[in-house]
């Protein structure tokens, strides 16, 4: 815990506020609880952080001993899994279905091939014995909700990258729900509730995916999540021009969309839909966001902006 | 105020705004279960199951049988995303700072940034990066410098899609200004 270097440290004019940050899921996590009046505030903060550890330990593609990795090692067998893993995969499959496969949780092997295979703690590369180049998709996952089992009909590597972080944010938010005001920021995926220490609505800047030194918009929220997907943060070290978001249907990084930001009630939804819309492209992506009742902004490489009709209400 | 964005009127509005003009591509509206409902149910059920594990031994037994209770679907609560009414104050009150030069430091996954703010006549006149130890260029925070001066305070509370350097810069400015607080 690098509390002394916490970017939030030093917020002024606040007493009784809690803020803490750490590196988890290869990203900087900051949780801030302004004017924490609850006697158990610190305990809740600890548990909020613990959710991130729990989700990472369960859903990480980079931890050899994670439940996800152990599931990936077994073929054609109904494997009983934890509620956390089952629900994460179940949600990922639901997003895959809603997006006609533009979102797919079975891309782990493709991501490994592109160099996204290093454990951020140990630096060690992970690989999959079961990985072949046989094409696969979410349709090869069989889920049994009653037995809470998952079976893989083909050798594949699950990647819950676009689901797990949001899920951890939402679980942490649930943990803090008794606090009136809080903000959770995991590497630019944000969930806020209530107000800042100054009593103002939380202001969330939207980074311009084309000009990183600019903010496109500033949004004001008192409850909800804002998550963004872009190809700028994690380029592939193996293929030039490729990054960590892949179109499952082409196996390449999408070329039309530069960035997507989504405003949704929960981070898991915002994050997954931002990724799906990124792959679908501006028109189909915008329709997906509207069909699912969320707001968002899609920016293409030719600098066109596609916003849902309700997006403007959050702008400041 | 509640979040809508689901009305037919707004959807027609959207089609009007799409630049493609491909109205023929009017899609069939699917009646799939909404992902918002699914995601809320997922969080509640995982939270409930995980929460039990942190309780006493007696509760843990209940947690182990929790898998069979999966059929009892948790009630999905629909939290709404709350936009702020346009009448809400938008800018922070100009803070009265003590004149001088103040330095702060912020860190990120990719390294540290040191920023120095210059206060003259109680106001922020500059907010420069004085040390950049991030893996990437610190030029990315240039726009934030303007915002610090415009707002006379730290930039936005959080940045979605942020680079780590902007996070570090925000931390550095906040720390520097805490020393300048009158």
**Total of DSSP H or I helical runs spanning 4+ residues of chain A:** 7
Compressed to H and E, one letter per element, the order of chain B equals HHHEEEEHEH
- The chain-level structural class of chain A is alpha+beta
How do the strands of the widest beta sheet of chain B line up side by side?
2-3-4
How many beta-strand elements of chain A? 12
What composes the largest sheet of chain B? 3 strands, antiparallel
Shape of chain A: globular
**What's the tally of helices of chain B?**
5
Task: Please give a structural write-up.
The complex is a heterodimer of chains A (316) and B (182). Chain A has helices at 41-59, 67-72, 83-98, 108-113, 161-175, 267-280, 282-291, and strands at 18-24, 27-33, 79-80, 141-144, 149-152, 182-186, 189-193, 202-207, 215-230, 257-264, 295-300, 305-307. Chain A has 316 residues and is α+β, with helices and mostly antiparallel strands. Residues 1-5 and 7-14 of chain A have low confidence and may be disordered. Chain B has helices at residues 8-17, 35-53, 57-64, 142-151, 164-180; strands at residues 82-83, 100-108, 111-120, 123-134, 158-160. In chain B, helix 2 packs across helix 3 (57-64). Chain B is elongated, with a radius of gyration of 25 Å. Residues 1-31, 54-79 and 86-93 of chain B have low confidence and may be disordered.
């Amino acid at each position: 815990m690098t509390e002394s270097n916490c970017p939030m440290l030093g917020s002024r004019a606040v007493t009784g506020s809690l803020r803490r940050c750490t590196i988890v899921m290869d990203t900087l996590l900051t949780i801030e609880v302004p004017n924490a009046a609850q006697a158990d505030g610190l305990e809740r903060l600890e548990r909020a952080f613990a959710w991130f550890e729990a989700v990472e330990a369960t859903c990480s593609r980079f931890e050899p001993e994670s439940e996800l990795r152990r599931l990936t090692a077994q073929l054609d067998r109904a494997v009983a899994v934890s509620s956390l893993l089952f629900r994460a995969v179940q949600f990922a499959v639901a997003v895959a279905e809603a997006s006609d496969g533009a979102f797919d949780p079975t891309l782990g092997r493709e991501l490994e091939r592109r160099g996204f295979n290093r454990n951020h703690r140990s630096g060690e590369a992970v690989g999959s014995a079961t990985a072949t180049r046989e094409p696969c998709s979410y349709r090869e996952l069989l889920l049994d909700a009653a037995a809470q089992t998952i079976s893989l009909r083909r050798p594949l590597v699950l990647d819950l990258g676009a689901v797990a972080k949001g899920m951890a944010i939402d679980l942490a938010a649930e943990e803090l729900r008794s606090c009136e005001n809080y903000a959770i920021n995991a590497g630019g995926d944000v969930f806020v509730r209530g107000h800042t220490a100054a009593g103002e609505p939380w202001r969330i800047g939207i980074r311009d995916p084309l000009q990183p030194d600019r903010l496109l918009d500033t949004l004001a929220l008192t409850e909800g999540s804002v998550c963004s997907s872009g190809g700028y943060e994690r380029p592939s070290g193996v293929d030039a021009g490729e990054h960590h978001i892949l179109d499952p249907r082409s196996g390449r990084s999408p070329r039309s969309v530069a960035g997507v930001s989504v405003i949704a009630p929960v981070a898991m939804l915002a994050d997954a839909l931002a990724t799906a819309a990124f792959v679908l492209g501006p028109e189909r992506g915008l329709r997906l966001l509207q069909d699912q009742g969320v707001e968002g902004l899609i920016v293409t490489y030719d600098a066109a902006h596609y916003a849902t009709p309700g997006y403007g209400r959050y702008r400041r | 105020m509640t979040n809508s964005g689901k009305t037919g009127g707004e959807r027609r509005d959207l089609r009007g705004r799409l630049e493609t003009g491909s109205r023929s591509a009017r899609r069939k509206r699917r009646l799939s279960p909404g992902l918002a409902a699914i995601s809320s149910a997922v969080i509640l059920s995982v939270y409930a199951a995980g929460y039990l594990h942190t309780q006493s031994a007696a509760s843990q037994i209940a947690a182990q049988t929790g898998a069979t209770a999966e059929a009892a679907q948790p009630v999905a609560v629909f939290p709404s995303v709350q936009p702020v009414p346009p009448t809400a104050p938008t800018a922070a009150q100009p803070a009265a700072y003590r004149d001088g030069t103040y330095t702060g430091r912020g860190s990120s996954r990719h390294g540290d940034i040191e920023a120095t703010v210059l206060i003259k006549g109680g106001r922020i006149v500059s907010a420069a990066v004085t040390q950049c130890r991030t893996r990437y260029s610190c030029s990315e925070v240039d726009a934030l410098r303007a915002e610090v001066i415009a707002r006379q305070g730290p930039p936005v509370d959080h940045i979605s899609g942020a680079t780590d350097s902007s996070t570090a810069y925000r931390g550095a400015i906040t720390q520097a200004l805490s020393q300048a607080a009158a």
